[in-house]
Write a structure and sequence with these properties.
- The structure is a homodecamer.
- By secondary structure, the first copy, chain A, is of the alpha+beta class.
- Helices cover 23% and strands 40% of the residues of chain A.
- The first copy, chain A, contains three helices and six strands.
- In chain A, the strands form two sheets. A four-stranded antiparallel β-sheet of chain A has the order 2-3-5-6, with helices on one face. Chain A has a two-stranded antiparallel sheet with strand order 1-4.
- The longest helix of chain A has 16 residues, at 81-96.
- The model of chain A has no long low-confidence stretch (mean pLDDT 94).
- The interface between G and H is medium-sized, with 22 and 21 residues.
- Strand 2 of chain D pairs antiparallel with strand 6 of chain G, so a sheet runs across the interface.
Chain lengths: 124, 124, 124, 124, 124, 124, 124, 124, 124, 124
C-alpha cells in the first residue's frame, strides 16, 4: 500500500460535531450506528459497517443530529478502516472533551475476511 | 440545543416511589422494564426504550407497583435520554437509600442511531 | 406493603434438603430449575420463574431428588420474590454447609416488569 | 365486560391517513410498527405491542409519515386489542382502497398471557 | 396405564369461561399462555408447559381474565397431556362457540422426552 | 456396503411399545426425543441424533415410558440411519395403529456431513 | 407527497446489467444483497436495506459483478422504497428475460417503522 | 464472461458415487454438507458454501463415504456456482436414480453478495 | 444416597489417554464433546451431556482419537455427574501433566433440573 | 502420533505477509477469517475452521490482501490444529512486530469433537 492511500480521508473536511451541556456527572453514554458506509480508497468500492461510540461525558454531551450528519459525510470519502475509527475518535475527543471514550468499527466481510478496529482515549 | 430543552422533564412532579422493609441483608435486585415510553421535548415525537434498575437494598426495597406508576408517568413528559436515566437514579436513591444502584436506559433507534445511557450511585 | 405480607412464606415448613458425601475437593456445581412456581401472598395469583443454585461443596453435595421436592413445595405457598431467593439460600446453606453459594431467581414479567434477585453466602 | 368498554376507542377521531399514487401494479407492501402503545379502557394501564400491516396497493400507497401520526394517536386512547386491530384495518381500507390487506397486532404479555389479533380485507 | 388414570381430571369442576360480544367479523385471535402447570395423575409430580389457543370468533370473544382463572385452576389437578389439551378445546368451544379453534399444548421434557399435543374444532 | 451391514439391527428384539386408550378423536401428538444414540454397524462408533414422532391416534396413544425404554434399547445396537427411522415407524404403526404417522431422525454430523431421514405412514 | 418526488429516481441512467448463457434448465437462483443504500428524495437522508432477487433463468443468468455495479449506483440517487424494488425488477427482467422473478427490499427502520416491499414477474 | 469459463469444471473427472440397496420404500433423505469448497475459474480464489441434497430413494441410497470423497474432489476445481449445483444434481441422479431429488448450494458472500442455487429432478 | 452408589464408576478401568509432544509453549487448547453419555448408577437410565476440557499443555497434548475412545467408554458405566467430571479431570491430568486444566460437564435436564459441574487443576 | 506428522506443515514455504505503516498509536485490530481450510497430515482429509487474529499494532498493520493469500495457501498443506495456530502467530509476529497479538483457531467437529486453540504473543 503506497503513501497515496495511507492518509486518504484523514484530512478531508467533515461537518462539525455539536455538543450540549450535560446536566449530570459520572455516567456513561453508548451510541450505536449500524448504517456506516464509506468508500475503499484503492478499489473505489463501498464499505459498510457498524460504528459504536462509548464515552463518559465531562461538561458536554454529543448532539445526536450533528453526529448523524458527521457520520453520514463519510459516505463518499475514500478511507481505510483503521483511519475511520481513529479519525472518529480524534474528532469526537476534540469536540466533546470526554473523560474517556472508545470507538469501535465492525466492518462487513470482504473476500471472506471481517475486520474490527477499536481505539481508546486517553491513549494508554 | 438551547436552554429551553436542557432541563425539560427534570422538575416535573412524578408519582411517589414507595418502599417496604427488606427481610435480609447483602443481596442484589434487578428490575427490567421493557415498556418505557416518553416524548422528545424538541420534536414531540414518542421515544421508546427499556429501563433496567439494579441495586443492593439497605433497609428497604422498592415496591414494584409504585415503580410501575412512577415509570408510567413519563408517558407524556418531554425529556431527553440522559435526563431520563439520571433522574430515575436520583429519585430511586432518594426513596430507597440503597447501598449501591445502577440505572440503564436502552432506547430504540432514531434515524438509524441507538443510544444506551448508564448511571451509577454512588457517583465515582 | 403491610407487615402481614412481609414475612409470608418465611416460616412455613418445607421438605428436608438431603445431602450425600462429596468424593472430591474444590469444584463447583450449578443447578438450574426453570420450573419454579409459587403464589403471590397479596393477589393469590401464581408466580413463575427460574431458580439457579451455584455452590462449592465442602463435605457434602445436595441430593437432586430432595431439592426437587423442596422446590416443588413452594407451589402453593404465598411468598415474595426477595424472600424466596433468600430463604432458599439460607435453607441450602444450613443443610449443605458449602464453602460458598449463590442463589438467583429470575421471575416472569408481571405488568411488564421482570425481576431478578441474587443472594450470596457468605454474606459480604 | 359491560357495554361501557365494548365500544371504547372505536369512535374517537384520529389523524387522517394520507396516500400517494402508486407507480407500479401487483406488488406487496409490509409495514412493521414495533412501537404501538394504547391504554386499557378498564384498568387505565398502558398496553404495548407491534402492529404489522401487509397490503397489495391498487391506485395509492399509504404515506408512512401520516401512518406514524395515526398510530401515535392511539397513545392515550382507551381501547381493547380486538378493536385496535379491526379499527386500523377499517381505517386503512377506507383511505387506501387496497386490493387486499392484513393487519396483525402482537401485544406484550399481561398476567402471563400474550395476545395476537389478525384481521383481513376483504372479509371472507 | 389403568383406567384409574385414563379419565383423571376430565370431570373435575373448573372456573367458568366468560365471553364478551365481538365488535367485528372474520378475524383471528391467538392467545399464548406459557405458564401452564398441572400435576401428573400417576406420579403426583408437577408438569409445566405452554398452552396456545387460536380461534375465529363468531358472536363472542373469550374474556382473558376468566381464561386466566380457568387455566390457573389446573394447578393442582392430576391430568394427562392429551386430556389437558382436548378438555381445554371442549370447554372453550362450549363457552365461545367459535367458527373454528385450535388448542396446542407444548410440555416441558420429562425423562428427555418432549410432547406437543394439538387439537382442532370442528373435528375433521 | 456389503450385505452383512444392510440388515444390521432390523431383526434385533426390542422392548414392547405399550399403549393406552385415547379419550378423544382427531388430534395430533408430537414426541421429540433428543437423546437417541445407537452404534454404527461398520465402525462400531456411537451415533447420536434426535428422533421426532408425529401421529394422529386412532383408538390408542403410545405410552411414553414404554417408548423411552424402546428408544433406549437402540443404545448398543449396530444399525444404519435409514433403518433406524424406518424400523421405528414400522414398530410404532404395529403397536399404535395410528391414522397417520411420521418419524424423523436428525443425526449429528459425521465427517462434516449431517443426515436427516423422514418416513411416513401410510406409505404413499 | 407531490409529483416532484413520485417519479424520483425512476428515469435516472444506471450501469448496464450483463448476463451469461445458462448451462442448464429449470433451476432457481437467489441473490441476497444486504448492503443496499440510496437517498430519500424528500429529506436527502440515506436509506439502508437488503435487496433479495430470486429467479428462474431462461437462456441467461445475471452476471454478479455487473449486478454489484448496478446496485451500487443507487448510492447517491433519491428514490422511494416502492420505486427501488419495482425498478430493480423491471431492469432485471429487461436484461435477463427470466421465466419468473421476485425482488424483495427490506429497509431499515425510520421513525420506528420498518418497510418491506415485494414485487413479482410476471405481474399477476 | 467468455466461453472459456462457461463450461469450466463441468467435464472434469470426479470420484464415483457409490450406492447401497434401500431396505424400505417411500421415505426421504436429506444430507447437509457445510464444508464445500471449490475455486472460482476466473479469479482462482477459493469459494465456500453449504451443499444440501434431499431425495426420495428408489432402489438404492447414496453411500455417505463416497459422497464425501466426491464433494471433497471439488476442492481444487475451477467451476461457477450454477454449474456446481447442476452438476452435483446430474451426477447424483445418474448414480442413484432417485424418484425425486433437490440440490441446494448456499455460497458465502463475495463482495457483499450471497448466492443460493437450487435445482430439482425431474426437471419440470 | 448410600455408599453403594457414591463410588460407582470411579474405579472402573477405562481406555488409556494417549499424548503427543507439543511443538510450542504457552497456548491453550479447548475440546468440546457434545456427545457424552453414561448411565445413572441408581436408576440405570441413560444420562446425556456435553463435556468441555480446556488446558494449557506443558510437554504433551492429548491425542483426540484416544480421548474419543476414553469418553466413549463411559457409555455403559453407572456413575454420578460429580464423579464423571472429577474423574475425567484426574485421568486427564495424570496422562497429560498440563500446566493447568478445567473440565466442565453440562448435563441434560432430568425432572426439570439441569446440572453443570466444573473442576479445576491445580485444585485451589 | 509418530514424528513424521508432528512437524508436518511447519517448515512449508508460504506467501509473504505484507504490512503498511499505521497512522495512529494504541488501538486494537481484530480480523476474523471463517473460511480457513487445510488437510489432516494423517488422514489426508480436509479440515475447516475459523481463524481470528487480534493485535495491537506498533509501527505497521497487516495488509488484508496478503493475509488472505497467506491463509489461502494452507488449503493443500497437511498440518495439525495446534501447529496451524502457533505457526500463524509466529509468522504474524515476525512480519508485523505487534505490541501484542492473539491467534484463535476454532475447528469444525470431527467424530463429534470440536477443538479450539488459542496462542498469545508475547508468550507468558
Amino acid at each position: 500500500m503506497n503513501k497515496k492511500y495511507a492518509h486518504a480521508g484523514l484530512d478531508q473536511k467533515l461537518p462539525a460535531l455539536k455538543t450540549f451541556p450535560s446536566q449530570f456527572k459520572d455516567y456513561e453514554i453508548t451510541i450505536v450506528i449500524p448504517e456506516f458506509t464509506s468508500v475503499c480508497p484503492k478499489t473505489k468500492q463501498p464499505d459498510f459497517g457498524t460504528i459504536t461510540i462509548r464515552y463518559t461525558p465531562d461538561k458536554v454531551c454529543i448532539e445526536l443530529k450533528s453526529l448523524k450528519m458527521y457520520i453520514g459525510a463519510y459516505r463518499n470519502i475514500g478511507i481505510f478502516y483503521e483511519n475511520i475509527v481513529n479519525r472518529i475518535l480524534e474528532d469526537f475527543v476534540t469536540s466533546c472533551k470526554p473523560i474517556q471514550a472508545t470507538v469501535i468499527g465492525e466492518f462487513n466481510p470482504r473476500g471472506g475476511i471481517r475486520s474490527i478496529i477499536e481505539a481508546h482515549y486517553p491513549r494508554k
